[in-house]
Amino acid sequence: MFDITTLLILVAIMTVFVALMLAATYRGKNDRSALYWMNGCLAIAAGLVLVAARPVVSDWLGYAAAITLISGSNLLFGASLRYLADRDAPRDRRAEYTFAVVVLIYCVAQFFGQEEFQHFTALVSMAGAALWAASAARFAARRLKSQQLVVMQYLFVGGALAWGLRLPAAYLFDFRLMGDPALVNTALLLATLAFAVLRHLLYLMVRLSLAYEVTLDRALTLQEQTRQQMLASLNALALARDNETGNHIMRTQHYARRIAQRLRALGHFQEDLDDRRIDLIFDAAPLHDIGKVGIPDHILHKPGPLTDDEWAIMRTHTTLGESVLKAADTDLIDDEDVISVAIRIAGGHHEKWDGSGYPRGLSGESIPLEARIMSLVDMYDALRSARPYKREWTHDEAVTEIMRRKGQFFDPRVVQAFDIEKDAFDRMAREYRD
Fold first, then answer.
1. What is the radius of gyration, based on Cα positions, of the chain?
2. Which positions ≥6 away from 137 have C-beta within 8 Å?
3. N or C end of the chain, less CB within 10 A?
4. What CATH number corresponds to the domain at position 257?
5. What is the C-alpha to C-alpha distance for residues 431 and 434, in angstroms, rounded to an integer?
6. What is the pLDDT of residues 279-300, one digit of tens each?
7. Please, which residues bridge with residue 390 across strands?
8. What's the pLDDT score for residue 244?
9. Residue 363 main-chain phi, psi, to 5 deg
10. Same domain, 184 and 248
11. Is there a single domain that holds both residue 12 and residue 79?
């Protein structure tokens, strides 16, 4: 014969262990969800112990108090799940009032010896509380988008059905509802207890998942802050050594983004130019000339045209820029970050579509897309800017020059995008004028 008392005691011990674990983990954190679940565990454990203690304890303790505690535990679990999904959720007193009325009716029925009505009321209390907890689990599952909570919702429903089936089963198979070792009663009780154990495990899994998400969010936030600080430092370094202005950086950023967005709208490079990649191009654009930190001052700041030897040195700023950025490439999360894009731009923005550029003489599709965009953007801004050795070109002159270099210096598709956006370029050039 199955020892149902031992089973009840073992489940009660396991439930207390869950409560103690929650108490130790969330102590002092003002976590109402953990507090309610812990109290629910203690309530159901106390109820199971009272049932197992029959007939040593009185009917009021072994039945009335046990039923109250076991049913009430589901109300506590439901409240816990609501606070898990919404820390500021208001207290729902409707379930508490309904439960109090059912318990009162149960106690009155027991006092007057109405055993059948007493059993009926007890099962209504248990099943109703479990269904309310299932509703709370559904609410939490929608808020948190958690599959574990979806499963928990059905476990509460299953527990409610197991309690509800015990009353007709008791009439059909003639057993007592509480503590009877009859096979049907034992099977239904085992199902109820199994659902309870699984609910505890799922709750702990959800808590661990939420804790992991919080930790990951903090790590990502810290990484983003570190990335922004690094970009700011690199930008400051580039500006400190170059004769360009902060407005030059803003112009090239906006030009590059406008070209990338137009290319995508035209149906070009749609897989390569998603929103994230365009944002990376925007962030990386200011670093295209960071290699100039390694160019001597007498060449970098020379007021007139450079000699052939000086041009040879100046051209090394592309490979120097790659080296500087590769040293800063932490690659913490994935291969495609802002530094990776900046490396391709710095090393390739002076390559030309026909292969006549530098430093590697790349041509056509072998030039990274970001570098092809930056090549046109950089030339437009250079033409529109006054230098000691050259005048500022007008917008129309710059457009004419770029259109003339289509298929020679620049990717024809990039020029097509520029031709559509040329009026926007003119507006931005005037808005961010030095």
1. 36
2. 78, 81, 149, 150, 152, 153, 156
3. N
4. 1.10.3210.10
5. 9
6. 999 999 988 988 888 888 888 8
7. 387
8. 56
9. -140, 155
10. no
11. yes
Domain count, the chain: 2
Q: What mean pLDDT comes out for the span 148-168?
A: 85
How far apart are the C-alpha atoms of 160 and 130, rounded to whole Å? 5
Query: What average pLDDT does the segment 129-157 reach?
Result: 90
Using a cut of 0.85, tell me whether the model's pTM lies above it: no
Residue 239's pLDDT is: 67
Residue type, 29: K
Give 104-137 pLDDT, tens digit per residue: 877 777 777 676 677 777 778 888 888 888 999 9
pLDDT of residue 332: 46
Q: Which residue has the tokens 């290319």?
A: 263
- Work out the pLDDT band at 162, boundaries 50, 70, 90: confident
199 CB neighbour count, 10 Å cutoff: 25
Quickly state the pLDDT bin for 243 (edges 50, 70, 90): low
226, 296, 344 from 322: Cα distances, Å:
20, 18, 8
Exposed / middle / buried, residue 248 (Cβ in 10 Å: 0-12, 13-18, 19+): buried
Domain that holds residue 152: 4-216
Return d(Cα 92, Cα 69) in angstroms, integer: 19
What's the CA gap between 181 and 193, in Å, rounded?
A: 15
**Distance from C-alpha of 180 to C-alpha of 337, rounded to nearest angstrom:** 66
In this structure, the answer to whether residues 209 and 247 fall within a common structural domain is: no
Alpha-carbon gap, residue 295 to 422, rounded angstroms:
33
Whether 173 and 111 map to the same domain: the answer is yes
Q: What is the pLDDT of residue 401?
A: 96
Contacts 24+ apart (CB under 8 A), 384-391: 384/429, 385/248, 385/434, 388/303, 388/304, 389/303, 389/304, 389/305
